[in-house]
Design a protein that fits this description.
The chain is α/β, with parallel strands linked by helices. It has a single domain (about 5-150), classed as 3-Layer(aba) Sandwich (Rossmann fold). It is built from 5 helices and 5 strands; from the N terminus they run E-H-H-E-H-E-H-E-E-H. The chain has helices spanning about 20-25, 30-40, 55-70, 90-95, 135-150, and strands at about 5-10, 45-50, 75-80, 100-105, 125-130. It has a 5-stranded parallel sheet, with helices on both faces. Helix 4 (about 90-95) links the parallel strand 3 and strand 4 (about 100-105). Helix 2 runs parallel beside helix 5. It binds 1,3,4-trihydroxy-5-OXO-cyclohexanecarboxylic acid. 1,3,4-trihydroxy-5-OXO-cyclohexanecarboxylic acid (DQA) binds near residues 79, 82, 84, 105 and 109.
Amino acid sequence: MNKILVLNGPNLNLLGTREPAVYGRDTLADVEKLCRDEGARQGVAIECRQSNHEGQLIDWIHEAGREFAAGSLLGVVFNAGAYTHTSIALHDAIRGAGVPVIELHISNVHAREPFRHHSYLSPAARGVMAGFGVAGYGLAIAGLVRISEGRA
Ligand code: DQA
């Protein structure tokens, strides 16, 4: 069975209690279950990881690149949190790894503070999902499956 990696970056471990008016009341565990359920519907295995550390996220993107090259991974759904707006290193990691990445944001970052409007990841991402709440994770998984089948 093919696999999708769902990566969550800094502060997303606080989902459920962190600014619920912006991010909702679902916890990270709820989100990971939602992802596994969508994976089961799509016939792909889902692996979920979260880190607050940029270097760890970079290492996981590199690992994903190797698995993609080996044919055992379809791609990555990646909510990089605030690193989206700061990290040239994550941009370089995505480009260097050559793995399809869907950049994901729970909130509509373009309707928020100006410092959230720029993303270093978007130019390196295969697709971008923002503003669908946590449901966006399931939509991104379905979209990545379509991409892998040449249907998007
Ligand atoms: C976020 C948006 C980012 O601007 C923010 O720093 C986050 C979460 C989102 O999911 O909406 O941590 O990526």
